[in-house]
UniProtKB/TrEMBL annotation, chain A:
Organism of provenance: Cyprinus carpio carpio
Protein's UniProt keywords contain Lyase: no
Annotated membrane topology: Multi-pass membrane protein
Summary of subunit composition and partner proteins: Heteropentamer. Part of the GPI-anchor transamidase complex, consisting of PIGK, PIGT, PIGS, PIGU and GAA1. Interacts with PIGK.
Principal location: endoplasmic reticulum
Compartment(s): Endoplasmic reticulum membrane
Gene Ontology cellular-component terms listed: GPI-anchor transamidase complex
GO BP terms: attachment of GPI anchor to protein; GPI anchor biosynthetic process
Pathway(s) it belongs to: Glycolipid biosynthesis; glycosylphosphatidylinositol-anchor biosynthesis
InterPro entries in UniProt: Gaa1
Record keywords, A-Z: Disulfide bond, Endoplasmic reticulum, Glycoprotein, GPI-anchor biosynthesis, Membrane, Transmembrane, Transmembrane helix
Protein name, as recorded: GPI-anchor transamidase component GPAA1
Automatic annotation (TrEMBL), chain B:
Membrane topology: Multi-pass membrane protein
Organism from which the protein derives: Cyprinus carpio carpio
Tree of life domain: Eukaryota
Lineage: Eukaryota, Metazoa, Chordata, Craniata, Vertebrata
Biological processes annotated in GO: attachment of GPI anchor to protein; GPI anchor biosynthetic process
Protein name: Phosphatidylinositol glycan anchor biosynthesis, class U
Length: 606, 435
């Protein structure tokens, strides 16, 4: 407390901070970026280990052997799917019933706010089929879920077939202590959403669905299976869920442990692990893997069917089979054994997975970075905002703004309110105005929504600073300082909260927003800084992320393709918000964008 | 000044009425920061239902309001929203009137001191002008009514608002000089939540000062008045408790209300310091630490009363703040009450050192409470440590705020007697350090 109460030491400290403010800020920014990039360097990461006792020491022996039968089932399923022109509900019900499961169906329908052009759907109507294998050895208060989406075309047939084969095999075993639910859902995430809402008696997204007829206990864990070929070269684990939520790290450990045991190649973000961490290529590889995870997490959408389970406190992951041109092949029996092993270990759980980490980044499957290691990277960026706030000129403004009858508070209120109203318009108008836009312009509904959003975004740049000048005449020196103080504090709190919920999103926003917001004043060359500010605005951040993502998955795109992808990302973001309650779009529209507009206002203060 | 106050009341009531009608009300009334087991509206409704069924409301472990409260709501349960809005209005008006009275006193005293030339020549700039003091009562009312904490508390129908109204009325009666009413209201406030007991000391000091009785243990006049005030206080406390007994016909409420406050059996997270500590603690240390934690609230009364015996109103502020920080089930409504006093000390601004830091901390914490709650309870990815960390930070901010005001107040007083520009013995400029 000496530092806070002794005036001399305080003076020394504030003197130091004032004199070295800009250098400290620059050092902090660079240190933050370097720290973040250093996270992928293997000596700085921790080796993953199984924390959960119930899954660690108990060895299980996998005996599943009907891989071939699964493949023939897949052909049968494919034929019935073609005949039915969608999900062969009756066939599935019969197939599950003949394997001794309690089978139920759930129908659902959902009208999208506007057509989804990526998946070509608007009015969605479908059926989920699920069968429950009742546990013979326990009071049926807990359950596990294995789900396989029934996708259009001839993808994912093997996953459904393997699910059925596993059900048949599991039915004959006596050691189950948890009910096992085998779920085949139609229309991927929408089906999962309907089923989960039905299971938990909630309705948060306005979906119409029939109530579930059969239920098991509280779901402890879920695995989603995606498999489109008879043999695979590697299995990919997908963890990123809705709003950047991740399942407990033990689930990834479990998957990794079984891949090791059965000799299956396993990847994360589609990247194999490399052992040469001390070479430049090895580091780059790890950094790319981690960057991919950060980008996927930041966009806040569910990257597989598992993502929606996380919201209900259910640890879930997707396992995706990849077939590439490698020689090394794994057959369906081995994949079945892998799933059997994982489910059996999950069956041994005595309580929910909670021992291991929930906040982590994975530079490879066997290495992880925990929250304690990655938060400083964000902290170093956030501290810049606080340093700029404590900049004495601004501090003085704070004292002035507390004084009675200062003009500061009211002049600041106008831009703040106007910025937020623009944000509200950006949030509400695109979806509500689509019909009008379609009437007057030659565009489709989806294009109308995306283009309206972009138009409002651009219009926001022109609007607030002009009205501000009209309302209060010349902006005063005091005025912009108070506004900057408010905006900096606001941004710091906003980014801090975002980073806690979704670190990647918070970090990416901090990287682009912090430098410009920390340095902005009205006395800078307007045109130059306006361009820089626009280039570092939230929308451009999304654009850069699209390009970086494409670069990282080794599918580089040209500028025009990138632009089209950018448009589809925006429409997907809005759809994700409407369909599953993803929070990224409202966060950007209602908070980050208005906050950025406040800084825009400062640039054009005079 | 009545017109702006009326306007303020209308605005405040409108905001509350709108929020009551919105879908937010239900959400807010579930927040642990806003309602505690002591004052949750849900529990009042439960108690009322039990009462209507002819069962003692204290059977079961849900209801912890005092009997007066349940009988009040027995009659006005259909108008609960209006009652809570009126309570907030009463608090604001009472605070308005008390600060107005207080400012008049302060100004009169300052005038006398000035006429008798008691201030050093260089601290004239520290003196307060009527112009700057004119809007302070209005600001106090505004700080209370438009404080988001108060609004949340009112919309959640937390009975904390009613307790605040009683304390505000007590302050008003004290400052107006009515020992009888002050004693009765203090007894009522104590009866509601025990902790206002510590306000006895500042109230007594105020009356002694007002009647020009020196605080001297050998003077009979001092003892006479102290006993008189204590008698009013204890007498009304006994009467109120007795009345409660006759209302309910049993002493059930004593363990259920006061035992509940003291022994802290409900460890639902809140913005206070108790829950985490006692959730983690081994059972056999519990009694010892409960004593330590509870004594913490009451203990500061003695040193503060000695230090601030000339400034009872500031002492009231300090006591309310300490209660709201260290009490066993604090809510944001309690915080709002002492924050309303901050404009009254706006003249201390030049001596405050950490106000900027503290406001940032309190602001950030208010935003982080719901975020970490979400991560802990809904996402399941964080745990109680995250939430408690923010609780600690929030309380650290509050303590820093209160001690900063305390220091600033003492420093101003010091300057008023020793001159503004202090010199060390060797002639260099001196600085004051609180140690």
């Amino acid at each position: 407390m000496g530092l806070l109460s002794d005036p001399n030491r305080r003076k020394a400290l504030t003197g130091l901070l004032t004199r070295l403010n800009t250098p400290i800020c620059i050092v902090c920014y660079l240190a933050g970026i370097v720290w973040f990039m250093g996270l992928a360097f293997e000596p700085f990461t921790l080796r993953t280990y199984m924390s959960e006792n119930a899954m660690g020491s108990t060895m299980v022996e996998e005996r599943f052997s009907s891989g071939e039968r699964a493949l023939s089932l897949a052909k049968e399923f494919d034929a019935h799917k073609r005949k039915a022109g969608g999900m062969p509900v009756e066939w599935l019900v019969k197939a599950m019933q003949s394997r001794g499961l309690e089978v139920f169906t759930q129908s659902f329908s959902r009208k999208l706010p506007f057509p989804d052009e990526n998946k070509e759907r608007y009015m969605v109507r479908g059926t989920n089929v699920y069968g429950i294998l009742r546990a013979p050895r326990a009071p049926r208060t807990e359950a596990l879920v294995i789900t396989a989406p029934c996708s259009p075309g001839n993808t994912n047939n093997q996953a459904v077939a393997l699910l059925l084969a596993l059900a048949q095999y599991f039915r004959n075993q006596i050691y189950w202590a948890k009910d096992i639910i085998f779920l085949v859902n139609e229309h991927d995430l929408i089906g999962t959403q309907a089923w989960l809402e039905g299971y938990h008696h909630t309705n948060i997204t306005g979906m119409e669905y029939s109530p579930l007829q059969g239920r098991a206990g509280s779901i402890q864990a879920a695995l989603s299976l995606e498999l489109s070929s008879d043999v695979i070269t590697s299995l990919d684990l997908v963890l990123e869920g809705l709003n950047g939520q991740l399942p407990n790290l033990d689930l990834a450990n479990l998957f990794y442990a079984f891949c090791q045991k059965l000799g299956v190649l396993c990847t994360i973000q589609g990247k194999l692990q490399r052992n040469d961490w001390d070479t430049a290529e090895g580091y780059t590889h790890a950094a790319q893997t981690m960057m991919l995870m950060v980008l996927k997490q930041a966009c806040g959408r569910s990257w597989g069917d598992h993502g929606l389970f996380l919201r209900y406190h259910i640890e879930a992951a997707s396992v995706r089979g990849i077939n590439s041109f490698r020689h090394y092949k794994t057959d369906a029996t081995t994949i079945g054994r892998l799933l059997e092993g994982m489910v059996r270990k999950l069956n041994n759980l005595l309580e929910r997975l909670h021992q291991s980490y929930f906040f982590y980044l994975l530079p490879s499957l066997s290495r992880f970075v925990s929250i304690g290691y990655y938060m400083p990277a964000f902290g170093l960026l956030a501290v810049i905002l606080l340093l700029r706030v404590s900049f004495p000129g601004l501090c003085h403004c704070f004292s002035v703004s507390l004084q009675p009858s200062s003009p500061g508070v009211l002049t600041v209120l106008t831009p703040v309110v106007i910025s937020h109203l623009t944000g509200v318009a950006l949030y509400l108008l695109p979806v509500h105005l689509q019909e009008m836009a379609v009437e007057h312009f030659p565009v489709s509904e989806t294009e109308a929504v995306v283009l309206t959003a972009i138009a409002i975004y651009t219009a926001g740049l022109a609007l607030p600073h002009n009205t501000q000048r009209l309302l209060s005449g010349e902006g005063t020196e005091q005025g912009w300082k108070v506004l900057k103080l408010t905006a900096l504090l606001y941004l710091a709190v906003l980014l801090g909260c975002t980073a806690l919920i979704n670190f990647s999103l918070g970090f990416i926003l901090a990287v682009t927003l912090v430098p410009i917001t920390a340095s902005i004043t009205p006395h800078m060359p307007k045109a130059l800084y306006a361009v820089v500010m626009v280039l570092l605005s939230p929308a451009f951040t999304i654009l850069y992320c699209v390009f970086i993502y494409q670069e990282l998955i080794e599918a580089p795109v040209s500028v025009s393709e990138g632009w089209m992808l950018f448009l589809s990302v925006i429409s997907q973001g809005i759809l994700d918000h409407a369909l599953y309650g993803s929070l990224v779009y409202p966060l950007l529209a209602l908070f980050i964008y208005p906050c950025w507009l406040m800084f825009w206002n400062i640039l054009f203060w005079n | 000044m009545a017109a702006p106050l009326t306007l303020l009341l209308i605005v405040a009531v409108t905001i509350r009425a709108v929020l009551f009608r919105s879908s937010w009300a239900e959400l807010i009334s579930e927040r642990v920061e806003v309602v505690s087991p002591l004052n949750a509206w849900k529990r009042v409704v439960e108690g009322l239902a039990l009462l209507d069924l002819g069962v003692s409301p204290y059977s079961g472990d849900v209801f912890h309001e005092t009997p007066f409260m349940i009988y009040l709501f027995h009659f006005v349960v259909d108008y609960a929203e209006i009652v809570f809005m009126i309570a907030d209005g009463i608090t604001a008006v009472a605070l308005y009137l008390s600060i107005q009275t207080y400012n008049k006193n302060v100004f009169r005293k300052q005038k006398y001191a000035l006429e008798s030339d008691r201030y050093p020549a260089d601290c004239l700039e520290l003196l307060r002008s009527p112009k700057e003091m004119f809007y302070i009562p209005l600001k106090v009312a505004m700080f209370y009514l438009l404080n988001p904490f108060t609004i949340l508390s009112c919309v959640a129908k937390s009975t904390c608002g009613l307790n605040n109204a009683i304390i505000a009325l007590f302050i008003l009666c004290t400052l107006k000089g009515s020992a009888l009413l002050s004693g009765i209201l203090l007894a009522l406030a104590t009866y509601q939540s025990i902790y206002p007991l510590t306000l006895f000391a500042p109230a007594l000091l105020f009356f002694l000062q007002r009647l020009y009785i020196p605080v001297n243990l050998r003077r009979s006049s001092f003892w006479f008045f102290t006993l008189q005030y204590a008698f009013i206080y204890v007498g009304s406390l006994v009467v109120i408790t007795g009345l409660s007994f006759f209302l309910l016909g049993s002493w059930d409420f004593i363990p259920s209300v006061y035992g509940f406050i003291f022994s802290v059996p409900d460890l639902t997270p809140n913005i206070g310091l108790f829950w985490y500590f006692f959730a983690e603690m081994f059972e056999h240390f519990r009694l010892f630490f409960i004593c330590v934690f509870q004594i913490n609230v009451f203990f500061y009364t003695i040193p503060l009363s000695i230090k601030l015996k000339e400034h009872p109103v500031f002492l009231i502020f300090m006591q309310i703040a300490i209660i709201s920080i260290f009490k066993s089930y604090p809510t944001v409504g309690d915080v709002a009450l002492y924050m309303a006093f901050l404009p009254a000390w706006s003249h201390l601004y030049r001596f405050l050192r950490n106000i900027f830091l503290v406001s940032c901390v309190l602001l950030a914490c208010s935003a982080l409470f719901p975020v970490l709650w979400h991560l802990w309870i809904y996402a399941g990815s964080a745990n109680s440590n995250f939430y408690y960390a923010i609780t600690l930070l929030f309380n650290f901010g509050q303590i820093l705020l209160v001690s900063d005001y305390f220091y600033a107040y003492l420093r101003r007083e010091h300057h008023l007697t020793h001159g503004l520009y202090l010199k060390k013995k060797d002639g260099t400029e001196a600085t004051l350090v609180l140690k």
